[in-house]
Records
---
Amino acid sequence: MATVLDIAKRNPNAAPLAVSDAARAAGFIEKTAELNVVAGAAPGGASLVGLTRDQLKDSLAAIDVPERELKMRVAQLWHWIYFRGARDFAEMTNMGKELRAKLSTAYTLARPQVVSEQVSKDGTRKWLIRMASTGPLDKGAEIECVYIPEVDRGTLCVSSQVGCTLTCSFCHTGTQRLVRNLTSAEIVAQLIVARDAIGDWPGATPPDGAFVPSDGGRFVSNIVFMGMGEPLYNTDNVVAAIDVMSDGEGLTLSRRRITVSTSGVVPQMERLGAEANTMLAISLHAVRDELRDELVPINRKYDIKQLLDACRAYPGLSNARRITFEYVMLKGVNDSDADARKLVQLLKGIPAKINLIPFNPWPGSKYECSDWERIERFSEIVYRAGYASPVRTPRGRDILAACGQLKSETEKLRARARMMAEQGIGAEGVYAVGNGE
Ligand code: SF4
């Protein structure tokens, strides 16, 4: 069943293609489109939030801040925007009044709009976020972002694209029309929005009754790129966003607490490790090429051997920096004892942990979740071979925190006819949250 998002119709960057069952059957691997919006500033407006140091420098130069002051002024803006979470230039008291006035005339500190927030009884929060408009015909692309608090960490699952280029057959996001890549600023802005919402700035407090980590650290301590999209089809912006997020004078996320999940874009993996130096997760889901060709069709371009060779070569790989392999449990498809043994054999020599993910069916999906006993048996085989193999329980089920579902709820309000089609699950964003350090 092809699903076309409402937002795609109105977005000038929308891809001309959605994925039909016929296209999938014909071996359709990926959608292509002109993906990028203009880089260098937040699209559709002049917010400085999310910009890189170079982009901030350009923004200051554009309002005639003298060259000799640029470095210092960038450092000041950086501190206010990313360390303190400032929302108004008037707060920036170490800058002269004249400069503050100039800044507020030319720019804003606006965040993307939070269209809705849902809070689960387990503390998980899910935001539907509308990005700034990119032009007169664009009402703003919508993406989802999920916050999963635990006692000793808070994980934010971010999106890297609007929709997804790929067509994994178990994933509902893969049936949605690709709209475009997110800019680095839009990726960073998801973290800013989360910190605003849960009071994760110096001097701020969380909302009444909010569940946040109680270990004395930041409320958002971990980032996973497991929301909408394939991060390594948007590597430039993902790497730039990680640079901003991990900057020690601003948002201060440790790179070891940032995990990028890929379906297997082999040519970009070495670059990710070398430039972003983050943890890596692989959506593996099958141990035989003929099955992975179906479940994760990018496997037809880069097969399991190429993928695992790239894993072995991932910069910085060690026992302290293991790769997470995500494996969705599909009844009668990939969940046999032989599959478990093959998995162990394939991963030999790779410092790894394996996330076993109970499949969450969506209307139109052809798969069922493996029985619990089968998952336990699979997990035991993997565990006995020396690999951690936690079975991940999706969080926030009561608020449809599975990626794709919140948007679906919004779509229902707009077009009841799409109600059933939009109640699905985006695999990357749902299941594997909570892995990593
Ligand atoms: S599993 Fe990930 S890469 Fe595959 S279609 Fe879904 S969102 Fe895209």
---
Amino acid sequence: MSEWHATACMLCENNCGIEVKLSDDGRRIEKVRGDAAHPASKGYLCQKASRIDLYQNGPARVTHPLRRTADGDYERVDWDTAIKEVAARLAAVRDEYGGDKVFYFGGGGQGNHLPGAYGVSTQSALGGIYRSNALAQEKTGEAWVAASMFGAYVRTGDFDNCEVAVFIGKNPWHSHGVNRARITLHEIAKDPERTLVVFDPRVSETAELADFHIQLKPGTDAWVLAALIAIILEENIAHDDWIAEHVSGFDSVRPLFDRVAVAQYCEWSGVDETQLRLLARRLAGAKSVAWYEDLGVQMNRHSTLVSYIHRLAWLVTGSFGKAGSQFVINPLRPLVNSNPSLARKSPVADKPLLGNLVPCNVIAEEILSGHPDRYRAMIIETANPAHSLADSGKFIEAMRKLDFSVVIDVAMTETARHADYILPTATQYEKAEATFFNFEFPHNYFHLRHPIMAPPADADVLTEAEIHARIIEELGEMPEEVEGLRKTLEHQGREAFAQAFNVAQANNPAVRRLAPVVLYRSLGACLPENVAPAAALWGVAHFVAQREPGALQRAGLEGEGSTLGDALFNRIIDSPRGFTFSVDEYEMSWERVRTADGRINAKVEHLISSIEDLANGPQAITSPEYPFVLSAGERRAYTANTIFRDPDWRRKDRDGALRMCPADAARLSLNDGDVAKLSTVSGHTEVVVEISERMQPGHVSLPNGMGLDNASGAGKLSRVGTAPNELTASGHRDFFAGTPWHKMVPAQIEAA
Ligand code: SF4
């Protein structure tokens, strides 16, 4: 067996550093262990990483470019043909309807964000301006609230150093998001000086460890958080001096909470008022509180409102800009746009593009509208929207209505099955790859994974960087400066290259617009082949060096200006494992508050009336026809979006059971392992039942990532588990951000 290779787990945003051993033929990942030298994960890994070979050698790998035939099947074509025809079909849409009708979806999952840079170049070369990805069904409401209040993406807290840790709609035990999550949770739970708080309708694994488990009714987070703030204000324990020093507009927000009827809000939420008052005192009296909201509220009713009230809770507890509280990171590249403007709208539904992303839930309806401004072509890259977006059937119908679609991916996904062309790529272990999930503070980390194996000998796959460079060349849009830039680099070195690149950008807007592919074709051609797809990071490194030189220098990178930028880029491509690229002081968060007056803005005008509306109480979404609340997409021990297509990866819960509480099961005469019929307004399916004390009456859950269709011979597909989005409706979405209510689906359950 080979030596250990440093790489990373790509199953969640933590991207823990791992080391792997390959089989003698170099084709299989046979052993996996945590990488003790990785500065963030420090050797930690969870059970999900142990069998990543079932991703690398998954069942649905696409190994050659494929073109759809008239009978709906696919035929192999060579790369020259594929690139020529894909470019021609995209150009035809541009020429007939305008480049803005070419939509781009995806660009990366939990472990691969480099494709996005190159894919957006192709879209830009065509004149495309509308795009979206998974963030627009989870994080855009939160990001917009953060941008409105802080002028920055302020998301999570300093759980290593907090006195109190608060998780809202989040179970880090399984969904992570916190480095070394289980160790960190245990450390907080065991320390008598520290307190762990969980807001969750379920008795999650994190809730089991918690000092305070606020077990609210599903979808009532807005009422509980409003009541929490109201108690802190009513009992005069808010951090008033801190608010006076750092916050603008709080006086106009405060009366909204003075009017909250705490007892009534607790009753509506199913929460014990005494417990909530004890929690309010603990939070207000703590030296530091770290907070984290996640999909349990962000894919639920009132998601944008909850993000807002949650952040107001930070203010009354003084939870920002100090050790153990909330912070603003120094990102290598911001994952989310922090412009709170609502000026840009989607072309048909007229929905605001928060973070410049079209809400996922309106994409299909815009295509199907018949409106002249609808999207006509789609480039879908390393994403599986036909499985992951609400109402899968509607998305598939929309795909088939397009004039053209191309999927760029590793596997024959549920989305690829409906594309006109499929362009196959190297896997995440066969090419240089990275994510921009660099959310750490005060130390922040980056990891460019080097390829550790070659694609199969009989495969004809390319990296996304190469695919997009070829499409842009075929379109005739590659800036002619590329050749000169490459020669400058070869003959005069990196400094002269940097100057020439800046001049080229100034003289030709296309060089700036298509910078990732220009860098790939010029700088990338001079890099070692295994890291060439990382060429786009050169521009990113120089941008960070200009923006935050001190943070880089504190991390040990030397030089100023472009020398510092090159030092960072060299470190990126030379380090096969993660490294610390930024070291901050806690006060730096305040310098990164980019509001007009440099203070936190408490008053988010668009959401004020929604706080007032809470006084009317929760509106029931269940009915006699659909009496249960289904939480679709629960993170469990063996769930990982759709990246694992082989159901054998799951060591337990292979079918992805429907969890329900014993009382509900008894009422329906269902036993553990029984099959039940699950229906929603969008569809119905059969599910295996798991009776679980974790659920409360009326609340049931299904895991994410199940129900994938794999070929099983003779043109047939086989499926294990339920595809959750065959049960969700795209119209069930947040009024503001358009994010779906996957965690709040009215459902009916009957014995099958
Ligand atoms: S799934 Fe587990 S091992 Fe993989 S990155 Fe996340 S926490 Fe780390």
